[in-house]
Each structure stands twice: as C-alpha cells, then as structure tokens.
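User: Let's play a game. I give you a shape written as tokens, and you guess the letters that built it. Ready? Here's round one.
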C-alpha cells in the first residue's frame, strides 16, 4: 500500500475532512479509448459521504459570517438526501438544530442516516417529488420567517461558490493543463455551475458539459430534468458549453459496470456522470486523438441500500 501523506493527518473537527478528494483514473471502462485519460473525483470520500458536504458547509459558514444564521434559529431545507445528510453532520458538529423536508418516499437509508445525527424530518407528498418538498419548506418558512434559516440550495450562490473555490481548483491541482473536458450532471446545478466557472478561467479552453436526465420520469436520484422541473435560480444554461442527455439505462448500466470492472461502487448519478465522461472520451479519441476527461462520483452506491445496521431489531 502506498503512503498517502495527505490523508495521514490529525484533524480538529470532522468538517476539516471535507474536500481535497482524490481523482481515480478509470481503466477498464475506458479501454477502448487508450489515448484519453478518464478520471472520476471521489466525492463519496467526504465525511458526510457525498459531494454535497462542500456546498452545505459553505452555505452555513457564509450565513453565520453575515448573521443570517444564529444559534437561536433552526436550519430548514428541502433535500432529497445528500444535502440533508451534510446539513445534519454539520449541525451536529457545530451545535445547530436541523429540520429537513423530504418526500415521504425518500429511501429509508436517507431518513435513518439524517436522524442518526439528531435531525428532525418533515414529510412532503410522495407524489410531488423534490418540487413538493420545496413548496412545503417555503410555506413553513413563510409562516414563521424569524424562526428559521433557510439556506435554499437551489437559489443560494454559496452552493456553486463552494465548487468554484474548491472542486474546480482541486481538479486543476490534480491534472493541471492536461484536462480537456469536464462533465457534471445537474441536480441543484451547483457542481456544474461552480466547477465550470472555475475551469473556464483556466489558461486553455476546457470543454465543460452539463449532463441531464434524458427523461422527465427518470431513476437517477439527485438529478433534475430541467424542462419538467422548477428550474433552480442558480442554474444558468449559458455556463456549460454543452448539455448532454443521459438515459436512466445508461446511468444504471455504467453504475454496474464500474462496480464490476473497476471496483468502484457509485450511486446512479455517478454512473450517469461516468457514462457521459466515456461519451466525451470517445469523441476526444475520434476527433483529437486523445484528451483528459474529468467527472465526479457524487456518492456511493450503498447509500441506496436499506441499512440493516440501523434497524432497531433484527429479523434472522
Ligand atoms: C446523488 C446526487 N448526485 C448529484 C447531485 C447533483 O449535484 P448538484 O446539486 O451540485 O447539481 C446531487 C445533489 O443534488 C446528489 O444528491
């Protein structure tokens, strides 16, 4: 085993483990494009287990700094999962109360993980998805605005800013001038917006792509089909150089493939990102004879399992 000096360190707080995630080179699924480097940034190595630790921390820190979030307020937000886990971890580590609004049919794992940190859950209609959770949280906050800090990851500029300041910079630190392409799928769009803005400032042109579920009804948890959704205020369709549709089947198939061939078990949005990265790699191989494509593994596949360890009783 090689010594990883960056990870061999002491930390004063769990939140100091956020960021500085490594980039893994994909070999087996990119075998047919030998002159293109394909990397996936392992965001599940953040301590909350996902890419959302970065924007959640930034939104909380910025609000504490300018007085929007004080100890007497409850942080409330609508989240399908990973941002809720991140808020919950941050709230526990910093001593703030957290309430989350999520569709009743969100996975049991998500509910159990957030509650393990002491977070209170409020359920919205399972028929209305993440947009229903947004509508309900807005109603709750409008009825008692002084009681809550509502970061609203869909409108909060600190969300893409976190990726501009960290994700984008870390990618350039890792692969430098070799990078030719970047792709991130759209949820709130924070990852794609912030990282793309940073990469577009680089000295040479980096082709940045936003991947999007191809269908309105899709199985890529965490991602939004913009044409049929409430479009996040932080989303600016002029930022990416290209929008690439990815089908649920492509995302799920790639998730299985990287688990079996690379030993990398990612959630379906990570599978969608890798599927898009491979399409870009095929194009780079055909048109330019090589390149370097970077994408993101937003979380790990086991986040979508029923967590037996957290059951109160076992059925043998
Ligand atoms: C599993 C998963 N993948 C992808 C995303 C999309 O990231 P972003 O919100 O930065 O667009 C999210 C978050 O919303 C997510 O939870």
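Assistant: Ready! My guess for every position:
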């Amino acid at each position: 085993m090689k010594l990883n000096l960056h990870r061999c360190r002491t930390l004063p707080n769990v939140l100091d483990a956020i960021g500085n995630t490594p980039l893994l080179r994909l070999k087996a699924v990119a075998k047919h494009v030998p002159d293109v480097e394909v990397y996936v940034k392992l965001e599940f190595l953040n301590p909350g287990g996902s890419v959302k630790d970065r924007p959640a921390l930034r939104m909380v820190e910025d609000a504490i700094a300018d007085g929007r979030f004080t100890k007497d307020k409850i942080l409330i937000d609508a989240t399908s999962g990973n941002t809720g886990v991140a808020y919950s971890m941050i709230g526990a580590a910093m001593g703030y109360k957290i309430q989350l609004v999520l569709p009743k049919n969100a996975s049991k794992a998500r509910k159990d993980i957030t509650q393990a940190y002491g977070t209170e859950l409020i359920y919205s209609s399972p028929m209305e998805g993440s947009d229903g959770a947004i509508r309900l949280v807005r109603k709750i906050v409008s009825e008692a605005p002084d009681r809550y800090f509502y970061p609203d990851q869909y409108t909060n500029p600190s969300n893409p800013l976190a990726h501009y300041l960290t994700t984008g910079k870390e990618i350039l630190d890792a692969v430098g001038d070799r990078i030719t392409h970047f792709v991130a799928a759209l949820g709130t769009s924070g990852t794609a917006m912030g990282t793309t803005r940073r990469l577009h400032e680089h000295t040479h042109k980096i082709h940045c792509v936003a991947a999007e579920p191809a269908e309105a009804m899709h199985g890529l948890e965490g991602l939004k089909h913009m044409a049929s959704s409430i479009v996040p205020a932080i989303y600016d369709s002029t930022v990416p150089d290209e929008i690439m549709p990815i089908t649920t089947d492509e995302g799920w198939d790639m998730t299985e493939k990287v688990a079996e061939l690379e030993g990398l078990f990612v959630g379906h949005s990570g599978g969608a990102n890798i599927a898009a990265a491979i399409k870009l790699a095929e194009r780079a191989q055909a048109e330019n004879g090589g390149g370097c494509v970077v994408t993101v593994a937003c979380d790990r596949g086991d986040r979508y399992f029923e967590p037996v360890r957290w059951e109160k009783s076992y059925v043998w």
